[in-house]
Amino acid sequence: MSDDNYKELKKSVDRNTEKIDELKDGQARLEGRFDNLEGRFDVLEGRFDGLETRFDVLEGRFDLLEGRFDVLEGRFDGLETRADATEARADKFESYVLAEFAELKASVNFLSEKIDHNAKKHSQELARYFQMVLEQSRHDMKLFAEGINANSARLDNLEPRVDRLESAS
After folding, report:
1. What separation in angstroms does the CA of 155 have from each of 141, 149, 158, 159, 168?
2. pLDDT per residue as tens digits for the range 39-93
3. In the chain, where are the structural domains located?
4. What is the rounded end-to-end Cα distance, in angstroms, of the chain?
5. CA 70, 73, 74 angle in degrees (round to 5)?
6. HSE-up (13 A, CA, CB side) for residue 91
7. CA Rg value for the chain
8. Is-contact 119 126, C-beta < 8 A?
């Protein structure tokens, strides 16, 4: 082989070696970038695992709340049934009371008419009776007032005696 061929072959080998070195450098950069991406994917996977755990917790809480809601809904249904029954009883009682009230009103009207008739018939007797009651009440009030005056006088007489006893002790 000639010198020129040899030089050219050497240049070609050197260029190929440089290209191989460049490819190795590129491959190293790509591996670094892949390692970086792999690390980022690990971080994202960890975050997804955390989110999945949080969703599991939230799902459990939702299931619990849904169960509690079902219990409350059942209780409300029971209360609604009881309210309907109570309302029916109240309607029945109202009808009974209205009937009794109508009967009572009729009785009161009858008695009122009878009292008016008897009052007119016996108005002078009632007036005399109430006049006697009024006189008796006046007499009783007079006796009561005299008793109060007598007690006041006794208390007024006791006050100086109590003052003397207090000053003596």
Report:
1. 21, 10, 5, 6, 20
2. 999 999 999 999 999 999 999 999 999 999 999 999 999 999 999 999 999 999 9
3. 3-85, 123-169
4. 155
5. 90
6. 6
7. 57
8. yes
Beta-carbon contacts of residue 1 (< 8 Å; ≥ 6 apart): 9
Query: Per residue, what are the HEC states of the chain?
Result: CCHHHHHHHHHHHHHHHHHHHHHHHHHHHHHHHHHHHHHHHHHHHHHHHHHHHHHHHHHHHHHHHHHHHHHHHHHHHHHHHHHHHHHHHHHHHHHHHHHHHHHHHHHHHHHHHHHHHHHHHCHHHHHHHHHHHHHHHHHHHHHHHHHHHHHHHHHHHHHHHHHHHHHHC
- Looking only at Cα atoms, what is the longest distance across the chain? 170
Q: Distance between CA atoms of 6 and 24, rounded to whole angstroms? A: 26
Q: Report d(CA 153, CA 101) in Å as an integer.
A: 57
Give pTM, 2 decimals: 0.35
